[in-house]
Amino acid sequence: MALAATRTAAVASYAWVGRHDQKSADAAATTAMRAALADAPGRGTVVIGEGEKDDAPMLFNGEIVGNGHGPDFDIAVDPLEGTSFCAKDLPGSLATIAFGEPGTFWSPGPGFYMDKIVVPPQAKDVIDLDDPPERTLAKVAQALGKQVSELRVVIMDKPRHQELIARVVRAGAAVQTPAGGDVGGSLAVLLPTLDVDLLIGVGGTPEGVMTAAAVRALGGGMLGRLAPQRSEEADAIRAAGMSLDRVYDCDALVAGDAFFVATGVSGGPLVGRPRELDGRTMSESLLISSGQVRHITHTTFEKTTG
């Protein structure tokens, strides 16, 4: 069910790779994923989606999916993570989804952004969101048995991160600065073959919960705290009775076992892009659950038209 949803979304959005039309790419992924989820056994509630319902064809918070014949479940979803990567034909865009039992996923309410740290299992007990970046680097390096100069850190290339990037570079660590895609960056931290040690910085709350599902399943470490980027967002968070100071660990963001799936759209080191072979479409996906990672390559299904 989860794999069918992500691969359907990935193939639909792949048609928009390199066409510089983010809205159409996102809409194609979401429409395809919604159709796939309509046949899911049971009754699913989208806890992490696109926020308020509007005229766009997005999976929105509170939306009900499934055929109603089976157990209840919660969904965290980003049909097209790294939309700009897809539009510009850059590596890193993914179709992603996570499933959990009811009540599993934390709801960020009106909070759209959060400060995050993601580390491998060996460093999960040493991180603190209140530490300056230099101290974070030193503690993570020690936990991993490395020098700070050997660390590779992912920080999204955003104006809000200019000082953070400069401080990490001055401390001696190498920095990868993708334009977006913090779910993909976090997965790179969790998978030892990709040689990334740490993700830090402010990103979206939906992406934070999606990330936490994978982090929890693989025993990594993650901390998050709401980080509103506008005064209106901060006011809405306070009005909802939520704290701007509370630090959420991985278990608070995802309170139970979850099943996470990502399928490649524009390719990259995690998973390749869809491709056609003999009239069939092939996709590559990562399935993460309960300490296991399955890299499914050459998964095939009949090409759809229309």
Can you put this structure into words, describing what you see?
The chain is an alpha+beta fold and 306 residues long. Helix content is 31%, strand content 27%. The chain has nine helices and 14 strands. The strands form two sheets. Strands 1, 2, 3, 4, 11, 12, 13 and 14 form an eight-stranded mixed beta sheet that branches. Strands 7-6-8-5-9-10 form a six-stranded mixed beta sheet, with helices on both faces. Strand 6 (152-154), helix 5 and strand 7 form a beta-alpha-beta unit. Helix 1 (2-14) runs antiparallel to helix 2 and helix 6 packs parallel to helix 7 (205-218). The longest helix has 17 residues, at 22-38. The chain is globular and about 50 Å long.
In helices, the fraction of residues equals 25-40%
Please trace the helix and strand order, writing H or E for each element.
Answer: HHEEEHEEHEHEHEHEHEHEEEE
Rg from Cα: 19 Å
Basic shape: globular
Would you report the number of β strands? 14
Which class best fits the helix and strand makeup? alpha+beta
Main pleated sheet: 8 strands, mixed
Portion of residues in beta strands equals: 25-35%
N→C terminal distance: 22 Å
